[in-house]
């Protein structure tokens, strides 16, 4: 069986520089897929550009509970927001999980996915989650699985092959142990489509040519996903990861990376390769 690889850049729509960098990385590098933040300002214009400029880029939805405002009215998602009506931040969500309603989260995620479908005219290729928010409790993960089945989507694996997926989980290590216990059996029971492996070490100070080369050499047969966060540096500061995202962009677009993909006979795909 060939080695199939999805290279997914998260956070499409978070800032114009990020979205532009993702499109560039698809046209000039190895990025094959991205996940869209449908509740953020400017996503309509960015998604329109993606559909026009990068029609072969796989597009999923980056389910969100930690950045910006919900799409649903505040009265429908009281456990997900602060007094200003904005989503709880990463750390506040993690420390208040017992009060977070999975039912409210599912409703908000349905609104985010429905907006994607309305704007793009097609279902998302997959679902994943900003700050790993859909994987933090059995209730939230079950809501993700139910939503994926409803829309016929694949999902990102809940556990990485190399290291925890999200900054939230790294900072709240107790959550990781719980996820490792409850997520695999729930995923197996659901029948929801997913890859065989997930790599997340190509991030921040680990986003180097050496790290990516090591991951590519370690791929097994089947379908794997590498998570990245590419983008152009934004002097306005609207892209928080900023210089790191441009470093990632350079590596995924390097001649060395492209040659290695060819030498190792890796087949670049998006989540559409996972059969229904």
Key terms:
276 residues; alpha/beta; TIM Barrel; 8-stranded parallel β-sheet
Q: Just name the CATH architecture.
A: Alpha-Beta Barrel
Residue windows where pLDDT falls under 50 for at least 5 positions: none
Overall body shape: globular
Largest sheet: 8 strands, parallel
Strand content: 5-15%
What is the subunit organization of this protein? Answer: single chain
Task: Report helical residue fraction.
Answer: 40-55%
Over the alpha carbons, how many angstroms does the gyration radius reach? Answer: 17 Å
- Count of discrete domains: 1
Overall pLDDT metric: 92
Verbal overview:
By secondary structure, the chain is of the alpha/beta class. The chain has a single domain, classed as Glycoside hydrolase/deacetylase (TIM Barrel), CATH 3.20.20.370. It contains 10 helices and 8 strands. Strands 1, 2, 3, 4, 5, 6, 7 and 8 form an 8-stranded parallel β-sheet that branches. Helix 1 (16-28) packs parallel to helix 9 (243-252), helix 4 runs parallel beside helix 5 and helix 8 packs parallel to helix 10. The model has no long low-confidence stretch (mean pLDDT 92).
Short summary:
With 276 residues, the protein is of the alpha/beta class. 42% of the residues lie in helices and 14% in strands.
Task: Give the helix/strand layout.
Elements: E1 3-12, H1 16-28, E2 33-36, H2 43-53, E3 58-63, H3 90-95, H4 102-120, E4 126-129, H5 138-151, E5 154-155, H6 167-171, H7 173-190, E6 197-199, H8 209-218, E7 222-228, H9 243-252, H10 255-263, E8 266-269
Parallel strand pairs: 1-2, 1-7, 1-8, 2-3, 3-4, 4-5, 6-7
Helix pairs in contact: 1-9, 4-5, 5-7, 8-10
């Amino acid at each position: 069986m060939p080695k199939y690889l999805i290279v997914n850049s998260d956070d499409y729509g978070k800032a114009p520089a990020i979205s532009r960098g993702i499109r560039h990385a698809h046209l000039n590098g190895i990025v094959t897929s991205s996940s869209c933040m449908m509740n953020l300002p400017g996503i309509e214009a960015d998604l329109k550009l993606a559909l026009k400029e990068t029609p072969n880029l796989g597009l999923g939805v980056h389910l969100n509970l930690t950045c910006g405002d919900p799409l649903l009215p505040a009265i429908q998602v009281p456990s997900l927001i602060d007094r200003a009506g904005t989503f709880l931040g990463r750390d506040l969500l993690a420390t208040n999980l017992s009060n977070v309603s999975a039912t409210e989260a599912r409703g908000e995620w349905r609104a985010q996915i429905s907006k994607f479908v309305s704007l793009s005219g097609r279902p998302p290729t997959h679902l994943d989650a900003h700050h790993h928010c859909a994987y933090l409790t059995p209730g939230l993960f079950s809501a993700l699985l139910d939503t994926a089945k409803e829309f016929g989507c694949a999902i990102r694996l809940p556990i990485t092959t190399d290291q925890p997926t999200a900054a939230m989980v790294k900072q709240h290590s107790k959550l990781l142990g719980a996820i490792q216990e409850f997520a695999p059996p729930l995923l197996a029971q659901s029948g929801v489509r997913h890859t065989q492996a997930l790599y997340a070490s190509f991030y921040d100070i680990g986003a180097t040519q050496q790290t990516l080369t090591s991951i590519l050499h370690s791929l097994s047969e089947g379908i794997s996903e590498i998570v990245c966060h590419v983008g152009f540096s934004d002097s306005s500061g609207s892209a928080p990861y900023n210089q790191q995202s441009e470093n990632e962009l350079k590596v995924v677009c390097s001649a060395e990376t492209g040659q290695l993909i060819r030498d190792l006979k890796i087949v670049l795909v998006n989540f559409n390769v996972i059969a229904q």
